[in-house]
Amino acid sequence: MDQKIRIGAVSYLNTKPLLYGIERAPIRKDIQLIIDYPASIAAMLLKDEIDMGLVPVAIIPFLKESYINGQYCIGSDGDVASVCIFSETPIEKVEKVLLDYQSRTSVRLARILLKEYWKSGAQLVDAGKDFREDIKGTTAGVVIGDRALEQRRISPYIYDLAGSWKAFTGLPFVFAAWISNKPIDPNFIAAFDEANAQGIAHIEEVLAENPYSIFPLRDYYTKHLNYQLDSLKRKGLERFLQYLASPVVHPA
Asked: N or C: which end of the chain has fewer CB within 10 A?
């Protein structure tokens, strides 16, 4: 290829299997890879600083053009473990919810579930970088990614957003997909899919490269996360985008 395709991916543990395959695939030489947290990668796609990214799906309505590429995603068909509302009190007693700045999708999902599923009237507040220390009393917080796995050891009440979405809709949830702001060469996407597949096929090697004592990663990768962007996940994604288009969810 004459010009490298600029690819953005998130820096959390949940992407390690996909990145394992990408880093070792022949197509790696055709990629300029950028790693950051989800909202940052999404902003790069909006600004056309990357061509395709593993970005929060809530960015789709904000793109002039959007294309969901390939057969892989960050999804879950039940409890995902790493995207939750944490609190010291039951959800019905929560008065304020701090919203994690790192992911647009998780915040939107929390807004939908709080209003439609839990029927909560809690105040929703955009949070800064050190907000976890403020999760106390009747103030809860949406925490995502590796920090959520840490928070599981701290907060007595954990409300898994993917599991709650499944209970609410009967559908799995897609947090992030390989989304581009322009058409990408189908031959590249086919090779890119194969790289993703190879990573998922080598979970044991991924585990060996990423020792982690906070949460059992084998369970995380094989029981909580589901990387296949299948028809049911696409239905879940379509339902989520329908909620985003309704007046139920005010933009964060």
From this structure: N
